[in-house]
Every structure is written in C-alpha cells, then in structure tokens.
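Hey, can you fold this one?
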Amino acid sequence: MAVAPHNTSFDQIDRLVAAFYARVRKDETLGPIFMRAIGTDDVSWSRHEAHIASFWRNALGLDRGFSGNPMMKHLANGEIQPEHFPIWLGLFRETAHELLPQSEAKTIADLADRIGRSLSMGLTQFRAPPSGPPRFLSPS
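Sure. Predicted structure:
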C-alpha cells in the first residue's frame, strides 16, 4: 500500500487530475484516443476525472472508495498501446511537478511510473499473439 505524502489533499489530487487531462485532451496522440473513449462533452470528462481522482486517492492511501480494474479497462480499449504510456507518464510527471510541492510530486510521479510500466507490460503480455510467446518492451 502506498502512503500519501502528509500534505497531499483531496483538492490537490482533483487539481492534478483536471490539469493533467486538460493536457491529454490537447495531445495529438492521446487526445483523440481519450476523446473516443470518454467523449467530447464536459459532463463525461468531469465524471472520468472524478473517477480517476478517486483512483489516485486510493493509490496514495487517502481514501478507499475507488472501484474499478484499470488493467481490464485498458485491455478493453484496443487503441491503447504500450507506446502511449511514455507520453502519458511524461504529461503526468510534468503536471505533478508544476502543481504539487516537489516531494509530493515525486511520490505520485514515481507511483505513476510503476503503474504505467505495469499496465504497459500487461497490454504487451495479454495482447501477444496466441501462438507466440509474450512480447516484452525494452526499458526506456
């Protein structure tokens, strides 16, 4: 279980998630994928951001109200590819370091890196051709 930095608040997580997804929506690679998955209207994005903020509060040990399976969600969307995660993680890290105190930014960005690597590896392994061995990404 991750332990939240002592100063991380619900509001900080909400601001981080909203600012991050504002960047995602503008990204030429990720934006279209997310728009097709979530929608283009503000209500859909608000719901998504609230769900993801709940995920991060859970991951940081601030709240246990999150319900969902991120791996299955990502596997279900065939547009999401392992090579998208470095873009996602770069945007997330930049946003965290701009909005949070450095110790909290480092904690959540490092956790995002671990989660991103896990999701990327899961996509690679579970989407491998059935007749062949799992494919592994080279470390970046």
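The radius of gyration is 15 Å. Let me know if you want another pass with a different chain boundary.
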